[in-house]
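Methods — Computational structure assignment.
A single polypeptide chain was analysed. Its primary sequence is given first, followed by the predicted tertiary structure written as structure tokens.
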Amino acid sequence: MSGRAIGTVLVANRGEIACRVIRTLRRLGLRSVAVYHFVDRDAPHVRMADDARELQGAVPAGAYLDAAQIIAAAHAAGADAIHPGYGFLSENAEFARAVEDAGLVFVGPSAQTIELMGDKIASRAFAEAQGVPVAPSALDTGDAAAFVAAAEAIGFPLLIKASAGGGGKGMKIVAVREELEGAISAARSEALRYFGDERVYAEKLVSQPRHIEVQVLGDGAGKVVHLHERECSIQRRHQKVVEEAPAPNLAADLREAICTAAVNLAAAARYRNAGTIEFILGGDGAFYFLEMNTRLQVEHPVTEEITGLDLVEWQLKIAAGEPLTLEQERLGVQGHAIEVRICAEQPEFDFRPATGVCGVLDWPEAARIESGIAEGQQVTAAFDPLLAKLVVHAETRAAAGDKLAAALRETTLLGIANNIDYLHRIAVHPAFSAGELDTGFLARHAGELVPEPGAPPVAAICAALAGDPAFRTMIARVPDLHAAIGGWSN
């Protein structure tokens, strides 16, 4: 690590995570630089930053993936460091290396670590070598018949997964032998399309799986601490919807074993900066290494709420070469936190992405809001549908659940179809309140959670009309009532 002082940070991202990073930079007295595509020129993260640089690109998302242009913007703005947020270039080893080669500080792990942990086959082998449990699996070595035979030996049902995959892409569930070859072919094709890497492997499908992940911080010299675990089991199509910390209904010895495994793995990798190690926990109590995310997670606020730490601040400290002064025995858990992801989507129409203009926006006071939208902002199909995250914290899980339900009831977001009502139904569901969680939760309770398609509510119709220029013009032409009836007054 360079030990270089950081005074100005370019945030190579957009939306709520860019706003989140900029808030910490402002609190620390550091100068912030935003980047934006033309469609985001009036976005909150652009207005919040001390400086903003436009990125050119025919496709909006492509602009945020243009490493050379982002590095050039950092130099032009006098930045010392680049914070990648999550998504886009955050887990791109070539970008991390290019940032360092350009004389800038990359706020994240080394390129070598990103490469190791970004390859699921290599990272599983590394985890296994450190004594971290991995699920029974079979690797595709190029011999199709041997791979099929090895996969069969695992037993059904099983998973075919892409080595370079993530977010459920390149993943296929195989229930019976007759589906195996087709699933392998489909997974390879999808992996090549999304990641440019067709390597796949087969893995045991864990029954009643829970998704448990551990937040770690490392100094790059072998010291690592964990900031406890998060429960991320409520997922739809392998995408997280609700996250909480700590995980409910988890025995103390199992919690300790999972967190210890995470620390040992990160320490062996000489991990630097913030990262998350994810595990699958079966109904039988056995847990297995899933993957490591070498970046800040979307759900990091729940960890901040139960520890009182600012993870972005610690990312910056570590990136600047400061020692990791946190001691494990002092990192206790304070209460319970829950986060939900508010997205522009239509649950009643198979979660179809939604677009529109944010007409009315009113957040509850008793919640932490991580938002990247504002009234009057256009939401397009160019980016991920995540609009904001609503986070609550209370002394107990039951109290946090009640607080979550109340906060969702008090949230108003009009003009864009969204999943707020769907999230509220989850929050008040008896199974959620009881902590009866696994990755099949949403599918199992879909009949009670997904609203039936119907006419849009009156409020939504009014919001849509209010955002329509023609309607506004028509309203402006309506004569004033008092002028129309003369000088009469009440």
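Note: The first strand starts at residue 8 and ends at 11.
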